[in-house]
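Progress report, Aim 2. The chain analyzed during this reporting quarter is listed below.
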Amino acid sequence: MDASPAVAHALRILDALARAAGPRSAVALGRELSIPRSTTYRVLSTMAAHGYVVHVPDLGYALGPAAHELSWAYQRQAPLQRVAGPLLAALADALGHNAHLSVLHGKDVLYVIEERVKGRPRLITDVGVRLPAELTASGCAMLSRLTSAQISALYPSKEALVDRNDNGPATVSELRRELASIRARGYARETELVSTGLGSVAAPVLDSAGHPAASVAVTFPLGTGEPEIERVAEQVRRTAATIEARLERRRPPA
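Predicted structure tokens for the chain:
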């Protein structure tokens, strides 16, 4: 098959899966896009090998981690930073704690904005720093909004998990349980997994399709009281929701 038609087929399949409410079978995709069945399977196989789609048993194909990374790469550029920057600064000022914004890059969290409060300790989460997603509140907040198939693609076995001084999830099942709790609660929380003496809460920023585009987090000293942590978590969730709404208004009309 000539390279140009193959690329066109792959892009059309990506577009169809992005618009779909759930996984689509190869047969349904081929029929909808008028692509021969054998060609559809070959293109999907190549896309799966590169992480752009994942196969969900008995259901079909869905977008994979690599496809979402393209979305996150776009979101973390100028539009996201222009929208989130002032809101992160206001959040840090209001709470008196350091705040940061991060995006998911594969199995890592990449920090893209940090707002520091005078007198608070310097964090390791400087702009450009990467940390294992499953060990951070920011990462878990975003992971909690991925599909089961996407989690399987990122963490096919416990060997894919990072062990830091016997902290963090020991198995993929444990990680899944924690992510389910985070999704139900609306925010993630970690204590001393990243920095000794510090804890964090984080909430995801979702794009128009419900995928995690970024995460808003605030870090506070160990010993902070539960009422204060709950107040921080609520403000973090509100800030994430405000970023979502403002990004949506900046989207060009369909």
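Residues 70-250 form a domain with the Beta-Lactamase fold (CATH 3.30.450.40). The chain has a mean pLDDT of 87. These observations will guide the mutagenesis work planned for the next reporting period.
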